[in-house]
Structures are given as structure tokens and as C-alpha cells.
Design brief:
With 205 residues, the protein is an all-alpha fold. It is built from eight helices and two strands. The longest helix is centred in the N-terminal third of the chain and has 28 residues.
Length: 205
Amino acid sequence: MEFLTDFADEAVILPLVAAVSLALGLGGWRRGAAAWLGGIGITLVLVLLAKMVTHACAPLPGVALNSPSGHTAAAAVTYGGLAALAGPRAWRGPLSAAAALIIALAIGASRLALGVHSLADVLVGTALGVAGVVLLARCAGDRPRGFNRAPALAMALGVVIIFHGAHLQAEGRITDLSHRIWPLSLCDRRPGALPLDPAKGREAL
């Protein structure tokens, strides 16, 4: 499961996003590059905000959410988005969303098996990732005449091969930041709030 989940680590996703956007731009599909960056960027920002809220204000009343799965969301929107842009125009609708959903389920299952996320975490990550693919596909427009998909796919494959197995370890930094910025820092004063473990940069359980 570790091998599978590593395809969605930020250390793989971020350089993959940069490489594909460069290939799209140099290939002349600037609208596709903008949609790619916008769809993935919005998704990752929403995941970051959701993580910061859950880390700072846990436990959330009536919500069984520990930390939305960034791996699940990032894999769905990135690999699903790549399939949407590289595949036939017909893939831009339900098929691209279905591809993103299958990818999210695979990565989400690996996160559950490794015990790092709850089912609620994975479901939120899945929803954000699939929504990001739908946005990306709608905004990309048609491929320019003569656009060659091979360089973007080759760069994507090369990045995955090079960076697979690397880990960014961003979770602790996100947790620490969430306890330090206002207004999320106000959650630390709530009765029943979980204390921050300074040694781990996250809540002490």
C-alpha cells in the first residue's frame, strides 16, 4: 500500500503539475495550461484550508473528520485531470469524473489501509478531487489544432519515475501553522480543545 500511496505524495504531485503545465504552455495550449493549474490549484488550496480548520479546531462538533485526505484529492485531480486533457474530447464529461473517482478510491483505500486517515477524511478528499477535475475539464476548451500530447505525457511519466518514493512531510507544518494564525488560533482556547504537541507539530492524542 505504501507503494501505491506514494504516487499521490506532494513530492510527486507538485513537480508533476509544474512539468505538465510547462509542456502544455510550450505546446501552444495556454488555455489548457491555465485550466490545469487553476483546477489543481483551487483543489489543493481547499484541501489546505480544510486541513487547517480540522487540525486547529479538532474535535469538530458533530463532524467525524480528522484531516481531509490530501493524497486522495491530489491524486484524483492530477491524474484524472491528465486523463481528461490527454484523452478524447468526449472524456471531458462524466468519463473524466469517473476516472478521477476510480483513482481517488484506489489512493483512498491505501490511506485507510495504512491507518493514516478515516473514511470521512477520504470521502472529503475524493469529493474535492473529483470536483477539481470537473472544473478543469470544463475550463480547458478544445486542444489547439496540431497539439502534440506526447511531450506532456512523457514529462509526467518521467517526473513520476524520478520522484516516486519521495516524501514532502507537509502535515506537521500545516498543523503547526493552523495553531498560529488568527482566527484559527482561537480554537485553542475552546473548552475540550486538543493541545498541540510541540515535539510532533500536531495535536497530542
